[in-house]
């Protein structure tokens, strides 16, 4: 019995690792992870406020050719009517940061904001887990459904970006009474 359990865990771990590799390859090519600048929408209540002109003799800009390419949104880079007036970054939870670029439009005399989220894809070990309870219905004989309650827990052993590989345990009550020890690979989306 002990040998069967060990072999099962090894097979599950191998399958999990293969799955992790496949997901990492897919993640590299997934458009969702190619972070690009997006124009920040103005809240409706602010948009309704009438804008007031103020006299400005000169405005200081940051020359596009003097800053790193990663701080310049495509909409600004290719538009000679827009100049960069400020760039800032904010560190966020989960190893990410937001870069905000402010641009001045010489034609409209208005400022536009662009933001980009950058997420560090770092390898982490032993970084969190989950505990929960699941409830479901299981079809039995003659399609009569039985109740099933499962308590589960899991812990991430290795994480890379949104991909986690870990170990877990389940305890089932209801029509089927069981316990299980498992390995898992998952991707958050």
Descriptive notes:
There is one protein chain. The chain has 189 residues and is of the alpha+beta class. It folds into two domains: 2-29 and 123-187, no CATH class; 35-119, no CATH class. It has helices spanning 2-28, 44-47, 74-77, and strands at residues 38-39, 82-92, 96-105, 110-119, 123-125, 129-139, 145-160, 163-174, 178-187. Strands 5, 6, 7, 8 and 9 form a five-stranded antiparallel sheet that branches. Strands 1-4-3-2 form a four-stranded antiparallel sheet, with no helix packed on it. Strand 7 (145-160) and strand 8 form a beta hairpin. The radius of gyration is 26 Å and the shape is elongated. The model is unreliable at 29-34 (pLDDT under 50).
């Amino acid at each position: 019995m002990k040998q069967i359990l060990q072999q099962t865990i090894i097979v599950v771990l191998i399958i999990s690792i293969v799955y992790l590799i496949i997901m990492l390859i897919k993640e590299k090519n997934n458009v969702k992870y190619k972070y690009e600048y997006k124009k920040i929408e103005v809240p409706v209540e602010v948009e309704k406020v009438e804008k007031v002109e103020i006299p400005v003799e000169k405005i200081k800009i940051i020359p596009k050719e003097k800053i790193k390419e990663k701080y310049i949104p495509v909409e600004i880079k290719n538009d000679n009517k827009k100049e960069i007036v400020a760039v800032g970054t904010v560190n966020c939870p989960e190893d990410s940061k937001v870069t905000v670029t402010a641009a001045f439009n010489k034609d409209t005399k208005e400022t536009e904001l662009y933001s980009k989220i950058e997420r560090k894809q770092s390898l982490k070990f032993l970084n969190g887990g989950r505990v929960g309870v699941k409830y479901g219905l299981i079809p039995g004989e003659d399609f009569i459904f039985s109740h099933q309650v499962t308590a589960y827990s899991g812990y991430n052993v290795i994480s890379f970006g949104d991909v986690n590989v870990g170990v877990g345990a389940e305890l089932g009550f209801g029509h089927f009474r069981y316990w299980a020890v498992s390995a898992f690979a998952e991707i958050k989306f």
